[in-house]
Amino acid sequence: MRFFVGPLTQPIIEHGFGFEESHVLVLQTLAFNDHAIKERELKFHPMSCVGGLIVLVAWSVSICFAQPDLGPQDRPSSPSKIGSPYVPVESWVYPAFNRLIARGYIKSAFQGLRPWTRMTCARLLSEGEDALNTEVEDALNTNAPTDMMAVFSELEQEFSLEMKELAGTKVREIGFESVYTRPMGISSTPVNDSDHLGQTVINDYGRPYGSGFNNVTGFTLRGQVERFALYADGEYQHAPASPSYSSSTLQILANVDGTPAPLGDTASGRSTTNDFRLLDTYISGNALGVDISVGKQSLWWGPSAGGAFAISDNATPFWMFRINRTDPFRIPGLSRVTGPFRLDAFFGELADHRYPPHSFIHAQKVSFKPTANLEVGFSRIVVFAGANHVPLTFGSFFNSFFSVNDVSSATKFSRNDPGARHSAFDFSYRLPGLRNWLTLYTDSIVHDDVSPISAPHRSAINPGLYLSHVPGIPKLDFRVEAVSTDPSSSTGLGGQFIYWEVVYKDVYLNKGNIFGDWIGREGKGYQAWTTYWLSPKSSVQLAYREAKVSPKFIPGGTTQNDISAKADFWLRPELDIQGFVQYERWLIPVFSANRQSDVTAAVQLTFRPKDMIGFRETR
Description:
Elements: H1 10-15, H2 19-31, H3 34-39, H4 46-64, H5 93-102, H6 118-138, H7 146-158, H8 160-166, E1 171-186, E2 192-193, E3 198-199, E4 212-225, E5 228-239, H9 247-257, E6 273-287, E7 290-297, E8 318-325, H10 335-338, E9 341-349, E10 360-371, E11 374-384, H11 394-402, H12 409-412, E12 420-430, E13 438-447, E14 460-467, E15 476-484, E16 509-510, E17 513-514, E18 523-533, E19 539-549, E20 558-572, E21 575-587, E22 596-607, E23 613-618
Antiparallel strand pairs: 1-4, 1-22, 1-23, 2-3, 4-5, 5-6, 6-7, 7-8, 8-9, 9-10, 10-11, 11-12, 12-13, 13-14, 14-15, 15-18, 16-17, 18-19, 19-20, 20-21, 21-22
Helix pairs in contact: 2-4, 6-7, 6-8
């Protein structure tokens, strides 16, 4: 194999292309500056981000221009030998696949484990096309579902290269996938405290926002070669300053948190934000269907659309080492009962933790499908170790990994503390008699119990229903969800159970935002959406959201009522424009004695060229 070595690729070539050395070099350059490494904090310097991206691109281009001896034996024979980037969790692709799954065209998808790789999407698309062709043939071409055929056609264009790879074509590429900008204005004072009072803007990667003009402008970069892939999403973020709460409010929140100062980073105010930040940015390699990745990633572990208890995109993605079985597999004997399985697991460090500082997290999820219509998932999330509490060692990791029993106070405040443990359970089921119409699903989580199934009275829960199309209006769907993290509403727990722990008090925060469900601690709410699909990618949506925080947690409680409209138009295959407007009324006595209202309006422009701006080679 010959490499064209230049000044950018030389440092990597000198260290070799073994996974251990070259990937560590890239990640160190990409993620950390010297000061951050010394302080053991995951902090960025703008020049280190830019420099890291240059090295990452240089590494990929050097591989793309390698000249191996390609014989038939070198060609990938299955998706398990092909590296592939993940499709971001906010992509239009997932609603499109959801419609196909709900209508029964795709049966092997695991909706509670996202994101999916592009190769997984291609595999699902191939499965769905076979089902669609069978339906059309059975109907003698007289009853072809034109709306579903249009969805398949759009997905075929999106994953055309991946479909060719499934057929044996070899693809090498690296380039800019998209550029985007989103100006957003917020009138009056929004709610921006996910750990206490609520949020005006939810599931937005923890981006800062405030009253006035806000903006994010960024790019995405994608590449793949043989078993390896990369992805980068970098953006400039601007948000106005937000004032601190009053001294009395700060004291109230500190009291309910059991800390000297309130948890999170918004209660004490925030200066004007003008930062460059990386969102999903990682490198990955594939072996035998197992995707191994290192970098920042956003995950969505759950079937709900409004939020996910275990992990969602409500907070900034954190750095992780991840092992993901991207395609289903079967266990001899056991799978006769459970059906196929999927597994996902990661280890990472949370940012801006204070109780204790430098806490780490590991999580695992296993999902299986006993039938084509039923998906079941179990997950476990553990935050452990930390400065001045438990050192990070193999022993402390294994202690937290295998610990399932309650521990004494003496153990909890010692170096043998297994950490803060949450367990989640979810399922989705296409209801009999209404298979192609109605899907029932539920997400749940419990603190310090083996599973929500074993302790339902102590669990948070989020049930939902999805109507894939309204009778007589096949392009209109409807979804409703109700969520509660207040399992003991008769007595109240003061916000000190779900998403809280006696030692790890900010257990579920990453850079000040809850990385689980937006409802937060000891709250109740519901959401409803109806979406009319103008085309497979363009839509108009109306939504309503209500959230209440228990007065047994926040004195006087809180109430939020939001009504919103969203329009998504693909004016051309390369150009997407999204418009969003939301009217909100809220009452939070500890913050303001009177009921307040605010309006949020945003427009996002995304340019996504059909052919990436960069290098591509197919063989």
